[in-house]
Amino acid sequence: xxxxxxxxxRGAERWALWNALIALxxxxxxxxxxxxxxxxxxxxxxxxxxxxxxxxxxxxxxxxEKGGSYDIELWTKLRQGVQGQVSIMDKKAGVLxxxxxxxxxxxxxxxxxxxxxxxxxGILGLLALFFLIRGRIRIEHGKSGATIERFNYLERTxxxxxxxxxxxxxxxxxxxxxxxYVLIPVMGKEAFAxxxxxxxxxxxxxxxxxxxxxxxxxxxxxxxxxxxxxxFIWLAKGGGMFSRGVHPPARKFNAGQKIxxxxxxxxxxxxxxxxxxxxxxxxxPMFSKTFAALNMIGFDLPTQLTANExxxxxxxxxxxxxxxxxxxxxxxIYIGTxxxxxAFDAMGTGQVDTNWAKxxxxxxAEEELAAGKAHRPSGQPVPAE
Length: 385
Ligand code: HEM
Fold this sequence. Notes:
The protein has 385 residues and is mainly alpha-helical.
């Protein structure tokens, strides 16, 4: 009876999740389509006349508009970034229109948010599918009642500093990329503008909490994240994720967690550097230096980037890496909450059930149990195994 009720509850749980994820998927696809198409075609009030950008050279003419006139041939040259003569020291001022900005604008308002939305919806869809097929990964032998400390207070503080700051940065960053398409229709321009000013400041300042969280967790967990022989078995068995009763051995962190750790650290550092270069424009020529380093190992990349090109690349790279990390974190949050029974306790109370530890981190659990570190809820220690 209890089993039936349990199955019923699980069915309802799955159904609710499935519905929520379909709604999310629909939201992203609806948001991605017409709004971006409209934005990349530009606002006719502030753009040059039709034909000026592409057809100008073949159709030189003066188009009267709003009482003024455009010389399309001249505009085309300016628009394509022609270098003119100036008598001032800064010769860059001879370029009236930096046309790399137009390419940046097209990518920033077109493929970037569109593919970003598809990636996020795709990963949520895959997680929903995984949940429907595999269900919640249960503690197969049930809870023993005895627990071991998995993460101490400092580790949990570092994790939650990293996690909460990342979630704030993700939400405020997504607002920069998608807010105007998704939120303006819901809350209106004025409310959106006021909210976005707060969100922008939050994004700039919370970035430093993220950097601190990244540094703390890196220092605390680095030693657990070097490859070990168990990792190969773990990977070969898919971590036991896809079949019941399979529990490949793992130390404190399994191979999946080690991969996650390095993805978070490397993309976190990359997001930090590109974010700093956006925050302090023109002071950090990050791409010229990176390209110069890559050229030393055989690449052939431009190293004389203008300050504007540096900013354009930084803004695109920052967004691409952030979207990538958001997708990775969706999977992490899923497995740390809904996806696996007993996992959240590791970061909640810091204590995990000994049966959970034996099933998911057998090598680590054996060491802890042998050292007599397990105890009952009353505080009474469990004799060493
Ligand atoms: C609501 C959000 C989150 C929840 C519920 C959550 C939950 C957890 C849990 C339960 C663990 C311990 C896993 C274990 O005992 O083996 C963990 C570990 C970890 N978390 Fe999170 N986390 C969240 C967000 C984040 C974010 C946003 C980041 C980074 C940007 C992050 C980075 C890490 C890292 C590096 C580890 C150690 C490696 C691992 O266990 O995968 N977490 N998290």
